[in-house]
Amino acid sequence: MLVTDLIAKKRDxxxxxxxxxxxxxxxxxxxxxxxxxxxxxxxxxxxxxxTPKETSFLTxxxxxxxxxxxxxxxPGIKADKHSTGGVGDGISLALAPLVAACxxxxxxxxxxxxxxxxxxxxxxxxxxxxRTDLSKDQFIKQxxxxxICMIGQTLSIAPADxxxxxxRDVTSTVxxxxxxxxxxxxxxxxxxTDVLILDVKTGSGAFMKDKKSAKALxxxxxxxxxxxxxxxxxxxxxxxxPLGKMIGNALEIEQTIELLKGEENRLTRDFVELTDxxxxxxxxxxxxxxxxxxxxxxxxxxxxxxxxxxxxKEMIQAQGGDVSVCDHPQxxxxxxxxxxxxxxxxxxxVNVLEAKSLGLSALLLGAGxxxxxxxxxxxAGIILHKKIGxxxxxGEMIAELLTTTHESSLKIAxxxxxxxxxxxxVKPKPVRLIHDILRT
Length: 440
Ligand code: URA
Description:
The protein is an alpha/beta fold. Helix content is 45%, strand content 15%. It has three domains: 47 residues, Transferase, Pyrimidine Nucleoside Phosphorylase, Chain C (Transferase, Pyrimidine Nucleoside Phosphorylase, Chain A, domain 3), CATH 1.20.970.10; 250 residues, Nucleoside phosphorylase/phosphoribosyltransferase catalytic domain (Pyrimidine Nucleoside Phosphorylase, Chain A, domain 2); 91 residues, Aldehyde Oxidoreductase, domain 3 (Alpha-Beta Complex). The strands form four sheets. A four-stranded mixed beta sheet has the order 1-4-5-13, with helices on both faces. Helix 10 links the parallel strand 4 and strand 5. The model has no long low-confidence stretch (mean pLDDT 95). Bound molecules: uracil (URA). Uracil binds next to helix 9.
C-alpha cells in the first residue's frame, strides 16, 4: 500500500477501507509515515469528512495502537465522564468523588489545558504533591481500594491519538467531528470504562460553536460507543459563559472544596446543577439509581452530607497530595501575588460574558500555556462577581484578575476580558444550561 494513494483517495472523496485506515494509523505511530504525509492525509479527512464506519475504523485502529486496560478485577460497573472542553469547567473535580462516594467506581483519564480551555490534570496538580502520572497497576490498585483514580493519558493508552492529536493541533485540523470523536472515544475505550457520560459543549467557548454541530459530534461519539458496547448518554450544554465563578487551576480547586462542603450561591448555581445532572446519569447507567433523577438526588445528598468531600480527601491522600488543602484551601493552594479589579464601564444587565474571551484572559494571566513549553501559574485566573442576567452599576466590580508570574500582562488580560463583556438596558433571557440529552 502507498501512503500517496491513500491521501489521493481521501482527497478525491472516496471511502477508505479498514485495512487502509489501519495502515495509516500503524505506519504513523511507528514513525514509518512522515509528518508531512500524515498532515496531508488528516487535512483530506478534515475537508472530505469520514463516514460513521470510517470513523469507527479510525477509533479502533487508535485503540489497538496501545494497551486496553482490563478493569474486570475492579468490582462494579465503572463510569467516567468526558467534557469536550470549556472555561471554568472544573466539573470533573467534584463530580468524580461524588459519584465514587455513591458507590460507582470512577476510572478517569483526563487531559491538560488546551488553548483557552482548562485541563483537569493541571487543576489537580495545583494541590501540592498531587501526582497524576500513576502506572497502570497503581491506577487499578487505587480503583479497587477507594473507587476513584484521576490520572493523565499514559504512553501506553492510545499512543496513536497522542501523536495524531499533536499534529492536528499545529495543522488546523482539530475542529473535525470525525477526528474529535475518534480521538476522544479511542482514549475512553482504551481506559476500560463500562459507562461514559459525555458533556458536549456548545457556544463561544466550545470547539462546536452551534447546537447543530455539537449534536452531530455527540451523535458521532454515541455511534462509536454503541459499536464498542459502551453504555452512554450525551448532554449538550451551554458554554457561552464560563461555568461557576472561578477560572484557573488553584481557584477551581478552591471552588470544588466549597461545593463538596455543600456551599453554593448564585454564581455557582449552574456548576452545581450540571454536576448533579451529570452525576445522576452516571449513577443511573452505573446501576446505583433507577432513574437519572433519583441519581441526581443521591449526588445532591453526597454533596450535602460530606461523603463526596471525604472521597475527595481519600483520593488526594492516595495520590500523594496535601489533604489539609480541604481544611485550609487558601493556606495550602498557591495564592496570587497581584490582584486587579475589573470595573464595569456601564450600568445595566450583564448580557454577554463570552467564555472564549474570558478563557483567553485567564491564559494571558498565566493560567494556561501559550506554548507547549510554558509553565503554568497555578495561582492565576479570574474570580467572577457577576454572571449573565445580573445587574451592575457603572464602576462596580465585575471580576478580579489574579496572577503571580504575568503582572505585565494584566492590562491586555483586562482588555481581553472587557472585549467579551456586554451590558444592556434590557434584562436578557435566562441562559439555558442543558440543551439536549441523547442516549445510546
Ligand atoms: N479532546 C480530545 O481528546 N481530542 C480532540 O480531538 C479534541 C478534544
